[in-house]
Write a structure and sequence with these properties.
The complex is a heterotrimer of chains A (311), B (288) and C (424). With 311 residues, chain A is mostly helical. Chain A contains 14 helices and four strands. Chain A has a two-stranded antiparallel sheet with strand order 1-4. Chain A has a two-stranded antiparallel ribbon with strand order 2-3. A seven-stranded mixed β-sheet of chain C has the order 7-6-8-9-10-14-15, covered by helices on one side. In chain C, strands 2-1-3-4-5 form a five-stranded parallel β-sheet, sandwiched between helices. Classes of the chains: A mainly alpha (311), B mainly alpha (288), C alpha/beta (424).
Chain lengths: 311, 288, 424
């Protein structure tokens, strides 16, 4: 039933591209990439119980990995993407080791500071990274089955975003139902007891940080390829707060929460800003009201009220 | 400038910014210690304190009146936020983050629409320049540092000598047991939140003559406060002060040795590693 | 026609319901033979760090639209502004370009200031093939790295500004210069281009002091200024600039080098603010003199009246509401460029941009007057960038008095690109 539901969501997203008007078509493509970012975040927050405030460095590691190798060394898309994901894995590995002994708020703060150092580094090495102003990638094409597709084409954008999101979503679904995922949830619920049961908790935590960083980095790679821009704004603290917000709003510890949260938040801003100049008040009030209605996020609220089987 | 005076200036700047930092973090230290919630809107309270100060000083011409009005006004906003938002969601840590981000959006937009996007200064109530021969230094900053130390001492006294302080400490150590001993935990939470907001507003008010009032000034204050509070250890006022000194001084001294941005990177990493090694903070009682 | 269609929630809701189907509206109108209004997408920094600029860009834009529409619009068609906030954020900026182009179906897009938003949005404008006229003063359009659809016809770029004022600084203030600038792109442009021009003209750079953007206190960086510095060159942006200036004053007292700043440090800030007395006797670059003087031309006075700015460069309604005078005229001039180009090219509807782009590329100058109050301009069609006069002002009695105006040629540099070679 759960796998069916997830496949249905992916199928619905795939079908939407044929009916959406141009603007919403583009918006949804972007939302799917950012939702993949939140899916990565949720692996850590929702299923391991670690709240990070530094995920922008994983997203940005993917972004710079793919962007700089194309810009400076002329890598092809495939090689550059591998470089981006590798960059995210290395960054996440380092962060995982440094934060191994921290929990709760300390984990939050250490990840935030490491991300801050990362952000400042993107400014400090501005002769390479072009700092906050950033740089634009040239027009890119991907080859599939011998044919070349331009990434500037809206439907190519949409389907690349869809594939990346679907892979991340199904991979996390598989992960949380696997034995490893169950140990992670046990970690979230009670670190001490899990350790007493004989699990090497540090190792599992490290794996969770790396998987989370990998998915976030993959989202960064995809975002860069589709929207052709690299800049240090994406390494800033706001871009660490966003996936936290999206995940909590949608429902931490639910596989579909990140998508729902990202979708709601992006459209809340877009619609509210079309109605009033004071749109942040509307968005703020919507957040407060939503969380009053569903303290565990929207999907969390649905699960608690109507569908206990939701993963 | 020669290395000696340069280092002297960096140390002075480190101590002064450490005390400003401790002052900014004081309110958060109280709230976080007692309630264990990540109040993202805390930086907005700091900002509101600065904005109210600008309005009152502008209308009345008195900085001192503003210094009294700001904590009262912001304290009331905080109490309102506690009653309307935080209590209904039961101070659940994760819901609190979303709700207080919502609150932050609302407060920032209200300020943007009324006060505007400008960075506006407030004239310091007194002004003099300390001339040390090699360089000059702001007299107001030195006085504010002293005032910060005084305020910290007063808070510490209040926590250790009054009934309210006893309630706060009891609630902080164990909510359920405190309740069993007839501590009105619900009201203590509200008071802690209000007082925390008020203290933060005082920090905002005192800092306005140094940094100006701006609707986005809260984020940096929030992040720095969190670093100091967590590094110091949950609920330890002493820890908050020591952590502020570590952050302020390392930032100052490292800036002598490296170019500015590199110095920031190194100082940030150094503090992150300290916290990474000592996960519960310097004076933390227990892992949270 | 009212152009602030979102003044309050009630009216906004009604109007937005209409705005959700702009395509059908215009198509309907076109089918009846009348081309209807010309719809200009306005990408504006209403929130975020650029909000001060955004607020004044919006006021200037509204004033210019009112003027143009009062005179019959563009080729008989009234202008309708469709404004969208980008939050001064590169991600939202790209979304806003998409929204304006594909949902609101505007004729063209203009008005962006912050360069990271420009650079993130430009590729989308190029892919959607819609003209994108920025008012940013960054060295990005002129660098040749954007695309054929991006223009900057209403404001000069930072490289031109620096190139124009550098000789004056070296001649009048001193040869040994220390630069203090924010460690991001805007500062890096100053670092790179000023250093290049200064060293080629007999000056030396004593030290470069980039300030990290997260910094709120600057005192500890002043010891890095070498003692033999003759000129301290500063350019800061953001809410911390007043702190910077105050702390500079506290540090130096009366024993200070000559000081030259970019007015970006003080845009939206009252020079009579407490703590700024230290600036007395220092110099600033201005793009457009904030304070009216005895010799202010009539068209500049009209510009001030129309936008609602008093003789001190503040709002006529609130003297504490200080404008971003050296930037906002760019919106006014850009709108008049759009008018000139649409009328000359015979542009009629979205999607048919060849004539518009080639006509704009063909312009070589714009004359001084009410359409271009800041002064005459030269336009480089290959670079898509405009060049103009620059001003150097001295702070006296808490106001800025112009002491020098550069020639347009002073700001020219060898071009590094040619957009006209790109296909449309």
């Amino acid at each position: 039933m759960t796998l069916g539901l997830h496949l249905a969501v992916v199928a619905a997203l795939a079908a939407l591209q044929f009916v959406l008007p141009a603007f919403h078509h583009g918006m949804l493509a972007r939302i799917m990439v950012l939702a993949a970012y939140a899916v990565g975040y949720n692996v850590l927050l929702g299923y391991t119980g670690l709240m990070s405030l530094g995920h922008a460095m994983f997203f940005a590691a993917g972004m710079y990995g793919v962007g700089l190798t194309i810009q400076h060394w002329g890598f092809g898309i495939a090689a550059a993407s591998v470089a981006g994901v590798a960059g995210a894995i290395v960054t996440a590995g380092a962060v995982g080791v440094v934060t191994l002994r921290t929990a709760g708020p300390a984990f939050l703060i250490v990840t935030m500071m490491l991300a801050q150092a990362f952000y400042l580094a993107t400014l400090y090495f501005n002769t390479v990274t072009f700092g906050d102003q950033g740089f634009i990638l040239p027009a890119l094409e991907i080859g599939i089955g011998g044919r070349m597709f331009s990434l500037a084409d809206p439907s190519v954008k949409y389907n690349v975003a869809l594939v990346v999101f679907a892979v991340c979503l199904l991979a996390t679904l598989w992960l949380v139902r696997s034995p490893v995922g169950r140990v992670l949830v046990a970690l979230r619920e009670n670190d001490e007891r899990t350790r007493l049961l004989g699990y090497h908790t540090g190792r599992y935590r490290l794996v969770a940080v790396i998987v989370s960083g990998l998915i976030s980095g993959l989202a960064g790679v995809t975002y860069t390829l589709l929207f052709s821009y690299v800049g240090s704004t994406f390494a800033g603290v706001l871009y660490s707060i966003y996936p936290l917000l999206w995940t909590l709003l949608g429902g931490a510890g639910t596989t579909l929460g990140p998508l729902v949260g990202t979708l709601l938040m992006t459209y809340a801003i877009d619609v509210a800003s079309g109605i009033t100049d004071a749109y942040l008040i509307v968005v703020g009030a919507a957040l407060v009201l939503t969380i009053l209605w569903a303290p565990a996020g929207v999907v969390g609220g649905i699960r608690a009220r109507w569908a206990r089987w939701l993963p | 400038m020669a290395f000696g005076p340069h280092l002297l200036l960096a140390l002075m700047e480190g101590v002064v910014s450490a005390s400003l930092l401790a002052l900014t973090a004081l309110g958060l230290s109280l709230v976080f210690g007692v309630m264990r919630i990540v109040n993202v809107a805390h930086g907005a309270f700091f900002m509101l304190g600065a904005i109210v100060t600008w309005y009152v000083a502008d209308l009345s011409g008195s900085f001192w009146l503003a210094l009294v009005a700001a904590p009262i006004a912001v304290g009331l906003v905080a109490i309102l936020a506690d009653r309307l938002v935080l209590r209904p969601i039961g101070y659940e840590p994760e819901s609190t983050i979303v709700a207080t981000i919502g609150l932050l959006y609302i407060l920032e937009q209200v300020v943007l629409m009324t006060y505007g996007p400008y960075a506006r200064p407030v004239a310091a109530p007194f002004y003099f320049r300390i001339d040390l021969g090699w360089f000059g230094y702001s007299g107001y900053k030195v006085i504010v540092a002293a005032a910060a130390a005084l305020l910290l001492a007063v808070t510490w006294l209040a926590l250790s000598r009054t009934t309210l302080g006893l309630y706060l400490r009891a609630t902080q150590q164990d909510r359920e047991i405190a309740q069993a001993f007839a501590v009105p935990v619900g009201r203590v939470y509200t008071i802690a939140f209000g007082v925390g907001g008020g203290l933060t507003a005082i920090a905002g008010a005192l800092i306005v003559p140094v940094q100006q009032a701006h609707y986005l000034m809260g984020l940096d204050a929030l992040l720095l406060s969190f670093i100091v509070v967590i590094l110091g250890g949950l609920g330890s006022l002493r820890g908050t002060v020591v952590a502020a000194l570590i952050v302020g001084l390392s930032d100052g001294v490292v800036s002598v040795l490296f170019s500015p941005t590199l110095a920031k990177i190194i100082a940030t990493l150094a503090v992150a590693f300290v916290l990474g090694v000592r996960g519960r903070g310097l004076f933390g009682e227990e892992a949270a | 026609m009212s152009i602030s269609r979102r003044t309050f929630l009630g009216a906004g809701t009604v109007l937005t319901l209409g705005a959700q189907f702009p395509g059908s509206w215009t198509r309907h109108a076109a089918a009846q033979g009348s081309p209807g209004p010309i719809r200009l997408g306005f990408q504006v920094h209403r929130t975020g760090i650029g909000a001060v600029y955004g607020r004044w860009y919006e006021r200037t834009t509204n004033a210019a639209v009112k003027l143009i529409n009062g005179k019959g619009g563009i080729g008989g068609r009234p202008i309708e502004i469709v404004a969208e906030d980008d939050g001064t954020d590169p991600k939202r900026g790209a979304e806003v370009v998409e929204k304006l182009a594909t949902q609101h179906k505007v004729d063209l897009i203009f008005g962006t200031l912050f360069s990271h938003v420009v650079i993130a949005s430009a590729p989308r404008a190029g892919q959607l093939k819609i003209p994108y006229l920025v008012v940013s003063e960054g060295y990005h359009v002129a660098s040749g790295k954007l695309n054929r659809y991006v223009f900057q016809p209403g404001i000069t770029d930072v490289r031109a500004q620096v190139t124009a004022v550098a000789p004056w600084i070296l001649k009048n203030l001193g040869k040994k210069v220390t630069m203090i600038f924010p460690d991001y792109a805007f500062g890096h442009d100053h670092r790179d281009f000023f250093s290049r021009v200064a060293t080629s003209q007999g000056g030396t750079i004593s030290a470069l002091i980039p300030i990290p953007p997260t910094e709120t206190s600057f005192t500890k960086y002043f010891p890095r200024v070498p003692a033999d510095t003759e000129v301290l060159y500063h350019v800061m942006v953001g809410p911390g600039v007043l702190t910077f200036v105050k702390e500079m004053g506290e540090h130096y007292g009366s024993k200070r080098p000559k000081i030259f700043g970019f007015v970006d440090s003080l845009e939206g800030v009252d020079l009579a603010s407490p703590g700024l007395a230290f600036l007395e006797g220092t110099y600033f670059w201005e793009a457009f003199p904030r304070y009216a003087a005895a010799n202010t031309p009539a068209h500049v006075k009209t510009f001030r009246e129309r936008v609602g700015v008093n003789d001190n460069g503040a709002s006529v309604n609130d003297p504490k509401d200080v404008s971003t005078f050296s930037h906002m005229f760019g919106c006014w001039e850009t709108l008049h460029v759009i008018k000139a180009v649409v009328e000359k090219s015979g542009y009629r509807k979205a999607g048919e941009y060849r004539g518009f782009i080639e006509t704009l590329e063909g312009f070589q100058s714009f004359p001084e007057g009410l359409e271009h109050p800041q002064g005459a301009k030269k336009f480089n069609g290959k670079l898509h960038q405009v060049y103009g006069h620059q001003f150097i002002s001295k702070v006296e009695k808490r106001r800025l008095d112009v002491v020098h105006r550069t020639a347009i040629e002073d700001s020219m540099y060898p071009p590094e690109g040619d957009y006209t070679k790109q296909p449309l």
